[in-house]
Amino acid sequence: MHTRGALELDDIQRGVFSPRPTPYAATYLVFRVDDRAQGRELMRRASAVVTTAADSASPLGETWVSVAVTCHGLEALGVPRTALDTFAWEFRQGMAARAKALGDVGESSPENWEAPLGTSEVHVVFTAVAPDAERLEEAIDRARPAYEHLPGVTAVWRQDCYALPTETEHFGYRDGVSQPAIEGSGIAGSNQLEVPLKAGEFVLGYPDELGGVQTPQPEVLGHNGSYAAFRKLHQRVAAFRRYLQDNATGPEDEELLAAKVMGRWRSGAPLALGPRHDDPALGADPHRRNTFLYQQDDPAGFTTPGGCHIRRANPRDASVAGEVRLHRMIRRGAVYGPPLPRGVLEDDGADRGLMFAFIGAHLGRQFEFVQSEWMNDGVFFGAGSARDPITGSHDGITGFTIPRRPLRRRLPPLPRFVVTRGGEYCFLPSLSALRWLGELRD
């Protein structure tokens, strides 16, 4: 058993550890496997296309391809039931079955998702990432031989993503700021005050923060793999802009409100380090903009509200329900759809938003816990049923409270700004596992 020792970077997919480049272009390609033998051939070919975590200094630079498989996909490839039963039960159920726990209700519920997301038709997900559209096309061209001329493998869905010229997401905030420090990954975390997390929090087959080792069986299939959650999140940009404008006393106050609900100014500068005004130089500095804690300087949230988006997603050193280090995640976001022109306050009907990706070794206590307990509840920091002001599954009943002396500032009920359009739980196999899947025999 490989339960100790250094991370085997040459067997782990690069997409597990590498933050996406800035700027970037990305594509998600989803396939259905109708012919088991050809599905296995797809895995065999994919093993030659996927970039490894050891390739960070490769001639490809910041361009890579990742391959993920759903539980339905593993079934379609003929992985025995005895092996499937060793995977996390959330993975086996699939994201659509977990919708209620994740807050995917009402407009966000699976019956409203884009076909075929959330169904048994989604088997394999290819993701290609590059610094620009030209190099992305080259990466897709390199991957194309893996799935072309396999009539038993059908492309069923595609989503193209790209960096906006502003290098922000559609609500106007700099994205991709936070990256956890992971022992042995060779990639520095973005918060220099954070003690690196055990590799087993993110890669299967290594000790995690509790000393446990999770490895689906057989070991050649589970070891060096990770779980991933992909979500297509539609953003209601006009509604978000109107809410800020309607509740602000003027343009300056509008920017302060935007910072208070996020926990950062739009430039990426955190309220923790720049409480009174935006600091674009700080926001652009990857070594400073995420190096801060909350508990010592701001336990009551007068600077960074406890209910804001970034403090919910990562309470850092705060004493909250659950040990924070057990719920850390690798998060990635890639923008899709055209930007809503600056100043426009009416929706133009275009589909725009974020392709969100979570990567970790514990779907339940990482992604699902944060989504249900921290994003869609407020009990952990004494705020009752309050939800995340930006991504929460709002029903127009709960508002947002900004701690302030002498009187706190209460904002009116929040509409839903983000609607789930689809999602999947996936497994990111190691390169050895891709080859093993390619060599499966009935």
TrEMBL record:
- DyP dimeric alpha+beta barrel domain residues are 26-142
Please give the superkingdom of this protein's source: Bacteria
The UniProt keyword set, sorted, is:
Iron, Metal-binding, Oxidoreductase, Peroxidase
Q: Does the keyword Protease apply?
A: no
Q: Name one GO molecular function term.
A: peroxidase activity
What cofactors does this protein use? Answer: heme b
What the entry lists under InterPro entries is as follows: Dimeric_a/b-barrel, DyP_N, Dyp_peroxidase
Concerning its family, UniProt says:
Belongs to the DyP-type peroxidase family.
Name under which the protein is recorded: Dyp-type peroxidase
Q: What is the lineage of its organism?
A: Bacteria, Bacillati, Actinomycetota, Actinomycetes, Kitasatosporales
